[in-house]
Amino acid sequence: MRVRTRPIEGQKPGTSGLRKKTKVFMSEGYLENFVQSVFDATGGAEGKTYVVGGDGRHFNDHAVQVILKMAAANGARRVIVGRGGFLSTPAASHLIRLHRTDGGLILSASHNPGGPDADFGIKFNTANGGPAPEALTEAIHARTLEIDAYHIADEADVEIDRIGEQHIGGMQVSVIDPVADYAALMETIFDFPKIRALFSGGFRMRFDAMCAITGPYAVEILEHRLGAPPGTVVNATPLPDFGGLHPDPNPTWAKVLMDEMMGPDAPDFGAASDGDGDRNMVVGRGIYIAPSDSLAVLAANARLAPGYGGGLRGVARSMPTSTAADRVAAVLGIGSYETPTGWKFFGNLLDSGRVTLCGEESFGTGSDHVREKDGLWAVLLWLNILAERKETVREIMSDHWRRFGRNYYSRHDYEALPANLANRIMEGLRARLPTLPGQCLEGMTVSAADDFAYADPVDGSMSRGQGLRVVFSDGSRIVLRLSGTGTEGATLRLYLERYVAGPDGLDAEVQAALAPVIRTAEALAAIRAITGRPGPDVVT
Ligand code: VG1
Ligand code: CO
After folding, report:
1. CA of 277 to the centre of ligand 2 (A)
2. Per-residue model confidence as pLDDT tens digits over 67-109
3. pLDDT value of position 326
4. Predicted local distance difference test score (pLDDT) of residue 402
5. DSSP-assigned letters across all residues of 239-307
6. Counting C-beta atoms within 10 Å of the first and last residue's C-beta, which end of the chain has fewer, N or C?
7. Which atom of ligand 1 is nearest to the CA of 342?
């Protein structure tokens, strides 16, 4: 059935797919226009195969049915769907690769809250399993501005709760177990018997799935396959509104877990994941691990897991992520890369074999096993390292800082700002950048200041305007950029970093250690002065 439609403004994918208020996605033709534009911008769906699934948030089930019917009407050959319409983002990436499909549609607004009054999102991943690169998201957006019709099969809903083969018209629909293939992949990477022995030796863990998609994966892998006691995974059932929680694994939103880990009789290890399962926060007993540090520790110790026993090819991090991983790469004698924010920029580096591990300061870590960041994978790599080293998380961190020095790091988010104020702050700092090199601020000398631009070393594509950065000769850095995943106003992210080589000063409180950098950032960007806000809304 061909349905006439009109272009809808604003269907421009951001850092990770198209995200809007759920009600916007539920409005007439909104989802349909975007899905048709994806098909149109990728040469049509005729004869193709796709993976479809999402994190189970409100509207997920309906969206899956719409996509199935549209794929059928557009001539697709087969769609693989997770039972119930569920797939974590890393599991979807794996299925795209495993079944060599032409791509996949992932339904999620990731770490944004879900529900009828919260957020929904959709993302197209290409045949390598990774998020569509910028050139493609731009083509999709361009198509949304000229679309005049979409195609949808006039058929009954598919029974997505029933595993097995079905058909819509001539298209095959394969409903599969969302967890099985992913769990099998993890068994090929990690030493499950060793981690099992760790748990049977009394090692205690808490995993907070935040009522989001990772629950079923974590229960199957941690409790069923690795023998962690039942109840190790909490908030394990995915709910359409994530139980009212904000499924963003950071100390603010995973406060219950943080309190337990910092309290008396804390477990040995704690972790949380986000709405769609690609993020992770890891915590030791009494010690929080900054994501940038986690990436560095994983890079330094990855060889202890069978899947990385041959060593790493290289490491990549997003520009705002601390440079801790670069120091590890230098010692290991492997390449290190700095990319713009967003996992889509890692795809070419992974595909070309330049890097094995990637990470972002925003609680994302991953490797070449899929083409997305992968929360549970990072947790399993930590467990494998803990099982091999037989040390506490705190001992591993202290040892790491003694060897490499410590990159004190924090991100300050100012959320839901009026766009004009956020832009004024960005413009103000951008205008000052050329005057900064050579200046001495708080005893730190500016060695470079620019608006980050990235030339992809594989295909040469350029991405400009990726964040303002001020770099100091002592290794300190200030980075300022606007979020590309929010759905309300503008969110300004201020990233702060200071390097201490040691051996003294490695155990300071993070915000105190960063105080001169924080003062300098305010002097340069005047965020508090311009917004009138007393401080950031979220500190990670
Ligand atoms: C944020 C993070 C970024 C991450 C992106 C998607 O983007 O900063 O590092 O890749 O979310 O993560 P932004 O533009 O809001 O800073 V997820 O877990 O939403 O797929
Ligand atoms: Co996510």
Report:
1. 6
2. 999 999 999 999 999 999 999 999 999 999 999 999 999 999 9
3. 98
4. 97
5. -TTGGG-----STTTTHHHHHHHHSTT--SEEEEE-TTS-BEEEEETTEE--HHHHHHHHHHHGGGSGG
6. N
7. 10
Dump pLDDT digits (tens) for 256-301.
999 999 999 999 999 999 999 999 999 999 999 999 999 999 999 9
Retrieve residue 47's tokens. 């004869």
Quick one: CA dihedral 205, 374, 378, 225, positive or negative?
Answer: positive
Dist. CA 323–CA 475, nearest whole Å: 9
Domain span including residue 167: 2-177
Distance CA 271, CA 279 (A): 10
Same domain for 113 and 73? yes
Residues 140, 203 within the same domain: no
State the SS3 of 446-459: EEEEEECCEECCCC
The pTM of this model reads: 0.95
Domain end among 144, 177, 210: 177
Q: In angstroms, what is the span from residue 154 Cα to ligand 2's centroid?
A: 33
Specify the pLDDT at position 13.
Answer: 93
Residues 361 and 449 in one domain: no
Nearest residue (CA) to ligand 1, atom 2: 362
Ligand 1: residues with CB < 6 A are: 15-16, 110-111, 274, 278-279, 318, 341-343, 360, 362, 364, 483-485, 493
CATH code, 16: 3.40.120.10
DSSP letter for each residue of 414-469: EEEE-HHHHHHHHHHHHHHGGG-TT-EETTEEEEEEEE--EE-TTT--EE----EE
Q: For residue 439, give the CATH number of its domain.
A: 3.30.310.50
Q: Which two tokens stand for residue 413?
A: 């988010």
On whether the CB atoms of residues 330 and 322 are closer than 8 A, the answer is no
Per the annotation, the verdict on 110 as an active-site residue is yes
Catalytic residue among 37, 93, 110, 336: 110
